[in-house]
Amino acid sequence: MRQSQSFIPTLREIPADAEVKSHQLLLRAGFIRQSASGVYTFLPLGQRVLQKVEAIIREEMNRAGAIELLMPALQQAELWQESGRWYSYGPELMRLKDRHERDFALGPTHEEVITALVRDEVRTYKKLPLTLYQIQTKFRDEKRPRFGLLRGREFIMKDAYSFHTSKESLDDVYNKMYEAYSNIFRRCGLNFRAVIADSGAIGGKDTHEFMVLSEIGEDTIAYSDASDYAANIEMAPVVTTYEKSEELLRPLEKVHTPEQKTIEEVSAFLQVSKEKCIKSLLFKVDDRYVLVLVRGDHEANDVKVKNVFEASIVELASPEETKEVMRCSIGSLGPIGVDESVTVIADYAVQAIVNGVCGANEEGYHYVGVNPDRDFNVSQYTDLRFIQEGDPSPDGKGTIRFARGIEVGHVFKLGTRYSEAMNATYLDENGRIQTMIMGCYGIGVSRLLAAIAEQFGDENGLVWPAAVAPFHVHLILVNQKADEQRELAEEWYEKLGQAGFEVLYDDRPERPGVKFADSDLIGIPVRVTVGKRASEGIVEVKVRQTRESMEVHVNELVETVKRLLQSS
Ligand SMILES: O=C(C[C@@H]1CCCCN1)Cn1cnc2cc(Cl)c(F)cc2c1=O
Ligand SMILES: [Mg+2]
């Protein structure tokens, strides 16, 4: 493509509201433009990278035996009412009415649509297993869209769904997808980890997230420093055991702790270590209240709370709800004298506390000399806290360290969550009606583009691995007034194209400095500069990622470019 006839609006300055590198660079290099909050236009270069990423995804999906189709974004509410999710999702689900006042959703995902399709079209075990996928626009009305394509409200996802007659068949496809995902992210040049993840509200066990390691990742990965164990921190089980100290039990005593609310304040005021304080948090779990107890130096893990009750929605009770239910404010909550309508559960660490401290459920008062089992009961002790750095790794090897990651893929064993609710059944070999077993597998395609930009971008601009670059070669004509330069550039624009390379030719009447700055911004892997030594047939070749540059005679140009592209 000739740059003088393309549409690549680069920017000199860093856009004010872009906080992370990939967002800044994709805007500055003319790859995307924001249309609305969390809604983007992919400009020509952005669209070309999308197509490269999608081509890799299609190759690996097809190789794994998945079959591509395309489902509608408009989803009628009746399907979501059948699955029950019409009522369980909140403002994140974008809803609208058609001209006949009928309810629709703009699809955030497609379990309902695909299950309805397969239940109507597949009636016999002979047609299973079946794995279908699409690459399609999704809509999720995020409360806080941020970081450009990393968290948008309209984005592109590859979502696949598999249907099986047995768990073994699901396991087989799950493993094939796991393998395909590893190939996809490796071919995109990404440094990723597959981590054990929480299956979220969609139920079903066994789920992995594929995380690209990045300091700006929203997810925290807990990984072992001595094995390949890695889990989303939401899911990482805590295997620490706690010794009860031998000290004598002291009497329970209520003490006045005016204005002392947080664990830090209370432990300092009472001169008691945080390990002996009980942190009590009131959660709303679906439609009931649960008081969660963790040790003062630990954090309650809301996903573990959710999984205890297999709930859809878990959130901290508001200050008003807390006052109403516990008749005191958040800073004075405790497990002693709790209304029986409130379920009390505690992390294992709490059970080992001796002569501890907890809120008295009375404004400005706490208890000291608190001993679990003697002074309060809980409905269950279980693993409720976030794992911490330094904790033993759940696989027994080494200790846990943290890393941050961007989730780019997520694979689930769904089981019969949707096929049950929507009656997707088939006749087995004995003519008996059975419910299909399902799996689902997602990749954030537009998010992947930003994750690649995040991982490879440097202070001068984007850096694209050859496999996903918008073009292979950026051909720069230094001085279009110099005949020998222009002629050599024109000749090699044709020849490099004939050699099979995708060439972006900067033939614009711009100063060289502008051309080189734009070329660094756009990040095409190999730059060929036609300048002063054109009359000798010498051009400069530069590798964007390593900045390595060399002078090459045009007779060796094709071989040189081929070699350089293979290694970038
Ligand atoms: O999407 C999934 C699971 C898998 C991921 C891979 C591809 C198939 N789906 C989970 N999820 C996430 N956010 C959602 C947001 C809304 Cl508003 C919703 F209504 C539903 C969902 C929802 O179900
Ligand atoms: Mg996920």
From TrEMBL:
Species the sequence originates in: Anoxybacteroides amylolyticum
Molecular function in Gene Ontology: aminoacyl-tRNA deacylase activity; ATP binding; catalytic activity, acting on a protein; proline-tRNA ligase activity; transferase activity
Record field: catalytic activity: tRNA(Pro) + L-proline + ATP = L-prolyl-tRNA(Pro) + AMP + diphosphate
Residues of the Aminoacyl-transfer RNA synthetases class-II family profile domain: 33-465
InterPro entries noted in UniProt: aa-tRNA-synt_IIb, aa-tRNA-synth_II, aa-tRNA-synth_II/BPL/LPL, Anticodon-bd, Anticodon-bd_dom_sf, Pro-tRNA-ligase_IIa, Pro-tRNA-synth_IIa_bac-type, Pro-tRNA-Synthase_IIa_type1
UniProt keyword terms in alphabetical order: Aminoacyl-tRNA synthetase, ATP-binding, Cytoplasm, Ligase, Nucleotide-binding, Protein biosynthesis
Example of a GO biological process term: prolyl-tRNA aminoacylation
Similarity comment text for this entry: Belongs to the class-II aminoacyl-tRNA synthetase family. ProS type 1 subfamily.
SUPFAM superfamilies, sorted: Class II aaRS ABD-related, Class II aaRS and biotin synthetases, YbaK/ProRS associated domain
Assembly notes: Homodimer.
Gene Ontology cellular component annotations, sorted alphabetically: cytosol
Function: Catalyzes the attachment of proline to tRNA(Pro) in a two-step reaction: proline is first activated by ATP to form Pro-AMP and then transferred to the acceptor end of tRNA(Pro). As ProRS can inadvertently accommodate and process non-cognate amino acids such as alanine and cysteine, to avoid such errors it has two additional distinct editing activities against alanine. One activity is designated as 'pretransfer' editing and involves the tRNA(Pro)-independent hydrolysis of activated Ala-AMP.
UniProt domain comment: Consists of three domains: the N-terminal catalytic domain, the editing domain and the C-terminal anticodon-binding domain.
Protein known as: Proline--tRNA ligase
Location relative to the cell: Cytoplasm
PROSITE patterns assigned: AA_TRNA_LIGASE_II
Enzyme Commission identifier(s): 6.1.1.15
Database matches in HAMAP family: Pro_tRNA_synth_type1
